Amino acid sequence: MSDPFAGYNDTVRTHFRTPRNAGRFAAGHERILAGSAGQRRHGREVEFQLQVTADGRIGDCRYHVYGCPATIALCSLTSEALKGRTPAEAAGFSVVALADQLGLPAEKRDAAVTVEDAVRAAAGRYNAALAVSPAVPQLQA
Amino acid sequence: MPEKIIYLDYAATTPVDARVAQKMAGCLTCEGLFANPASAHAPGRKARGAVEQARVQVAALVNADLGEIIFTSGATESDNLAIKGAAHFYRNKGRHVVTSRIEHKAVLDTCKQLERDGFEVTYIKPDADGLIGPQAVAQALRPDTVLVSIMHVNNEIGTANDIAAIGAIVHAHGAWFHVDAAQSAGKLPIDLKQLPVDLMSFSGHKLYGPKGIGALYVRSQSHVNLDPLIHGGGHEHGLRSGTLATHQIVGMGEAYRIAREEMSKDVTHCSALRQQLWQALHAEVPEALLNGHPTQRVCGILNVGFPGIEGESLLFACHDLAVSGGSACTSADKTPSFVLRALGRDDQLAGSSIRFSVGRFTTKEEVQTAAHIVSGEYHRLRELAPAAG
Known about the structure:
Shape of chain B: globular
Shape of chain A: globular
CATH architecture of the largest domain in chain B: 3-Layer(aba) Sandwich
Structural class of chain A: alpha+beta
CATH superfamily of the largest domain in chain B: Type I PLP-dependent aspartate aminotransferase-like (Major domain)
Distance between the termini of chain A: 43 Å
Number of strands of chain A: 3
Number of helices of chain B: 11
Oligomer: heterodimer
CATH topology of chain A: Sufe protein. Chain: A
Largest sheet of chain A: 3 strands, antiparallel
């Protein structure tokens, strides 16, 4: 029988074991955008938070994740990759491409899509907020 | 982190006991019992003697007669021979077979084949603890039922069925009763002089013997007939042709001899370790759930559900442990365990369940380390997860 975890390279393994930026911003933090995707009963649930700096860039990220090792590792890697990007760039960030670069098995594409959807949902709130006010309001999911 | 993998998968297979390996080695080379046991010459007769000695040892563990033990390639073949063999032989008497939804795949897939061959099969649902009640069996019987196959101990959750009560009902109905005892031999007392069982499957490698060898008990008093699966040579009373694998058979015999002599010690050892593991896990993870019956069970298997976390991640996180996940009995299969689903566990809990199985060579320190690893990873993954909605 093949190793069911053979599709996870060292990068995936490292980020699964020691995920970066995991958790949630403490109450009182400002300029937080939050979005979520997936459902636990379907095996995958992701909540992403983006902290936007005064110059409109993502300064930091937090997330909570329920899912397989690939989902957890992708959250961690994505949280690192989003720093310094604008919310619009974050909304267009391809977690699927990241998964492909990591050599994750095709059946893990859904994991990437879920992370991508959560990030897009959070980043999308920035655009919606700007339509009302140039100042980013506190938007907690 | 432990320096080596902690093996807690004795229900999947056991290491060969060194005493067994030594006996087996004596059957392979020029100086040993390598000859064909069917040969009439002196080396052949010596090999035959070793085979028959092993048959005595296997029969002794379960209080069977010598002529009632048929050597096969393993419990899977024994299950096939018992179920297909009896069903096909008695096909003109009836074409209905009864089994349960949580049998080993060796039984379930064999029954599926019987369905393709024109038989009807009733799959009994277990209760919430994984037990097959005698009354549930009684309700499943039909006038055309020829065979009932119910496992003694479930391989995933360790629950032990009351095969004496089930067998009495089956026999009162006039059907044959087959029991897969791969997980119970050497762990629970089995007295085939007393039990109303016609056919019973045994494995070598679940009891510190080698892989590739098993046995089928065929009760002589029952006069149950079987259509053989393998033809050619008429070995094993014509039920299982093929040159007898002396080293495998001798290995199984020695393993069963040791099991008989050391059963009390093994059971005490495994029961204590299993209890230690459950207590340690439950202390660290109070929300952990025991899958299976709390007391009506075999000594070495502990199946625990860990709510709120995803199963593949838990198993991957516990990579220093050799355990089985809640995805059937193969971690490559991501489908939630059909056994746990049959018990009413939802997909999430079935997927995040772990089967720990301890054995003769498991130590207290290994169990302590395993509990520490699992509880630590559980809390880490739980903290990562969003609050349950």
